[in-house]
């Protein structure tokens, strides 16, 4: 059932703001209010609908999204996105340096070019020997 802490709009606003990596000062600037006013809002269990709409817009979410926000849902999404022991999980981290791979390819091409050039030189030398005989 809904407990007062579970439906505390101010805490939900605070957590969404933190998840969006936004400081209270930035939210205050977006709303045209003081940082202290944002702090007061985040400590309030309820927020007027008109103010909630403004806050939602500043956070890039909907007012309904704030009302329905659940920390457990966020943790479940994060937890279900990647598991080390789950072979079907997608690992978005790059495991090599792309620049190193580019340099390796360049070095391989350079060696191949040098071998090709040497083969052509050998061919020219062989043909000159045949012509001179």
UniProtKB/TrEMBL annotation:
Q: Residue ranges of the HTH cro/C1-type domain?
A: 13-66
UniProt-listed SMART domains: HTH_XRE
Annotated transmembrane regions:
none
Q: Which InterPro entries match?
A: Cro/C1-type_HTH (IPR001387), Lambda_DNA-bd_dom_sf (IPR010982)
GO MF term list: DNA binding
Pfam families for the chain? HTH_3
Q: What is this protein called?
A: Transcriptional regulator
């Amino acid at each position: 059932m809904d407990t007062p802490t579970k439906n505390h709009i101010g805490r939900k606003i605070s957590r969404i703001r933190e998840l969006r990596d936004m400081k209270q000062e930035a939210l205050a600037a977006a709303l045209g209010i003081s940082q202290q006013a944002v702090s007061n809002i985040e400590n309030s269990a309820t927020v007027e609908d008109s103010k909630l709409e403004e806050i939602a817009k500043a956070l890039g979410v909907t007012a309904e999204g704030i009302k329905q926000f659940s920390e457990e849902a966020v943790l479940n999404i994060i937890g279900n996105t990647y598991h080390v022991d789950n072979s079907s999980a997608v690992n978005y981290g790059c495991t090599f340096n792309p620049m190193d791979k580019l340099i390796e390819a360049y070095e391989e091409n350079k060696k191949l070019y040098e071998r090709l050039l040497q083969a052509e030189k050998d061919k020219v030398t062989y043909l000159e020997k045949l012509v001179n005989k």
